[in-house]
Write a structure and sequence with these properties.
Blueprint (H helix, E strand, L loop, with lengths): L2 E2 L3 H6 L6 E8 L8 E6 L2 E5 L8 H4 L13 E5 L5 H4 L2 H6 L6 E3 L1 H28 L13 H7 L3 E3 L6 E4 L2 E7 L7 E7 L2 E5 L22 E5 L12 H14 L4 E4 L5 H14 L9 E4 L1 H10 L10 H9 L2 E2 L6 H6 L5 E4 L9 H8 L6 E4 L8 H6 L4 E4 L2 E4 L3 E4 L9 H8 L8 E5 L3 H15 L3 E3 L5 E6 L5
Parallel strand pairs: 1-8, 4-5, 5-6, 6-7, 11-12, 12-21, 13-16, 13-17, 14-15, 14-16, 17-20, 21-22
Antiparallel strand pairs: 2-3, 2-23, 3-4, 8-9, 9-10, 10-11, 18-19
Helix pairs in contact: 5-6, 5-9
Length: 479
Amino acid sequence: MNESFNGMESAIETGPAIQNVYLQSLGAAGTVTGSKHLLLTPGGNVMIDCGLFQGIKALREKNWESLPVNLADISALILTHAHLDHCGYIPLLVRNGYRNKIYMSQPTRDLVELILRDCAKLQEEDAQKANKYGYSRHHPAKALYTVKDVEAALPYFEVCEIHKTISLAKQLSFSLYPCGHIAGACSVKISCFEKTIVFSGDIGRDQSELLPGPELLGQADFVVMESTYGDRLHSKNDTSQDLAGAINDTVFNKGNVLIPCFAVGRAQEVMHLIYRLKQHNLIPSSIPVYLDSPMAAVAGKTLVHFPEWFTIDEKECADMFNSVTINKDYKDTEKIIKRAGPKIVLAASGMLTGGRVLEYLKRYLGDERNTILLIGFQAEGTRGRALLNHIHELKIHGQYYPVVAKVQEIEGLSAHADQSELITWLKQFQNSVSGVYLVHGEPCAQDTLRVKIQDELKLTVKIMQPYHKELLFTLNQQL
C-alpha cells in the first residue's frame, strides 16, 4: 500500500522537464559532517539528510552560508537518523523557505525533536556566555538558530513505517530499512524511474551492545555509501575487557573516568556495558556512575518506548538507568566534579565540541590520575581529535588547559561499521550495482575504501565532490 505526498505531483509538473537524474552532495563530501545529499529527478528533487557541519572552523562557518540551491525546488526531505550532523540544519532549512514534508522513522522523529531543541538551547546559551565574557570575535555573538526556529520546523515532520513504500510522485518512491548505528537509523531505498538508488545512511556494526545489525536491502542500481572508517578495522579485543581495564586502572590510581558520549546511542550503550560489568563484578560495584547529560537521559527514556529496535528487554533497560545517577541541573555539575573519590562520568558532547563535558575537562585534564575515554569517531578539528593526536593543551572557552590526564581510545564502542563491515554490507548489491558513490568520510578513508572496493568487488566507485552534480542515468522515455 502506497502513501502519497499530497500536492507534490501537480507542483512538479509546472516546472521544466528534466531528462537526467543527478546526485549532488551539499555536505559530507570529503568530510564526515554536514550530510546533505540531493537526488535531482524529473519527478522532483529529494534531499536525503540535512545535517550541520562540525569540526574545524572552515567547516562550521559553512553552517552560516546559504545553500546553493533553491529550497522551493526541494520536494521532500528524508532523514536517515537523528545525529546532529544528519538533522541539525533542519531549522535553518525551514527558516529559509522549505515547506514540504520531512520523512523519518518514529524513533528518529522523537529523537530529532530532542536533539534540535537541545542544540538550539546550547547555541543560545553559548551566545549569551560569549557576550558576557567577551571571548567571541563577533559582536554581538548570535545563535545559529533558536528554539522558536525548531518549533517552526516540527509541523513538517512525517513518520514512516519501516519497509513501507511511500510514493512521492509518479515513478518516485522510497522505503526505509533499519541499518543499526542508533535506534531509528535507516538506509533509504529509492525507486526512481525504474532504477533503484540506495542511500546507506550511517551503517552500524554487525554486532552491537544494544542494536541488531543492518538489514539487507536486496538489489540496487546505484549506492550512495558512507565511508567513515573506510581505512581502518576496529579492534578485535573484547570491548568489555578494554573498558573494565581502563576503569579498574583509574580506580586503582584514585582517579576519575570521563567518557565523552554522543547523547543518542553511545551514552546508552556505554551505560549498558558498565551495568553488565558491575553485574559480573568485573569493576567495583560501589563506584558511582553519573550521566551528566539531560538530553541523553531523556533520549534513553524515549527509547524505552521502542523495544522492537533493541536486543534487550524493557526490564533490563530500566535496571540500566536505575544503576546511574542522572544529573539534570547544570548547577549540580560542580558538585559532581568536587565529589571526593573515584567516579565514572558520562557527559556530552561525544567529540568535545560543547556541552557539560567541557566543565569536567577543565578540572580533569590536569590530573595524571584521571582517564579520558574516547569511544566514537572524532572529526577533524574537534577537541576529541586533538586529544587523539596527543595535543599538549586544549583551548576551552578562551583559556588553555594542559593535557596531563591519560587519554585512551576504545575502538570497539564505535557505532560505525569498519572497512570489513562496509565491504560485507556492500556485497549484497555486487551483482546489480552500476556505481558506488562514497560520501561521509575524510579523504584518506574514502580513497582507501575506493581502492578496496574496486579491487575486491570489481565495482565502479566515485568519491563525491562538494556541490558537483554527478549524472546517474538518462531517461529513455520522453516526458
